[in-house]
């Protein structure tokens, strides 16, 4: 095997981190898009779970998902974006655990 053959086998990993960040954030981007397209349903869902002023909480939900995803995809302060989305995701679960349900 010559040196040129070995170079052909070398995979370029430059884009791997970006692809990984896109995959990680895609769930939240899709969820935000669905909430934007079906805003009245998103607001009604928030209202159903006891968050009165459902439209306001739907907007907050959308903004948090978009901001957290953009921060992760940007590659700057990825820890902050991941923390925002982790807190967003974990909050309902922790309140149910605290109530014993």
What brief labels describe this structure?
81% helix, single chain, elongated
Protein described:
The protein is mainly alpha-helical and 101 residues long. It has helices at 3-9, 16-37, 39-48, 54-74, 78-99. It has one domain (3-99). α2 (16-37) packs across α3 (39-48). The radius of gyration is 19 Å and the shape is elongated.
What are the segments in which pLDDT stays under 50 over at least 5 consecutive residues? 93-97
> What is the helix/strand order?
HHHHH
Rounded to an integer in angstroms, the radius of gyration calculated over CA atoms is 19 Å
- Average pLDDT for all residues: 84
User: The biggest beta sheet, please?
Assistant: none
Question: Total domains, how many?
Answer: 1
Distance between the termini: 63 Å
Into which percent range does the helicity of residues fall?
over 70%
Shape: elongated
Total helix count? 5
Structural class: mainly alpha
> Hey, roughly how much beta strand do the residues contain?
under 5%
Number of strands: 0
């Amino acid at each position: 095997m010559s040196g040129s053959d070995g170079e052909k086998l070398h995979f370029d990993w430059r884009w791997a981190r970006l692809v990984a960040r896109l995959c990680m954030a895609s769930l939240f981007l899709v969820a935000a898009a669905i909430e934007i397209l079906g805003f009245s349903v998103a607001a009604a869902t928030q209202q159903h779970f006891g968050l009165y002023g459902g439209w306001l909480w739907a907007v907050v939900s959308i903004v948090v998902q978009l901001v957290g995803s953009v921060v992760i995809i940007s590659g700057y302060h990825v820890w902050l974006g991941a923390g925002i989305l982790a807190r967003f995701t974990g909050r309902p679960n922790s309140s149910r655990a605290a109530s014993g349900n």
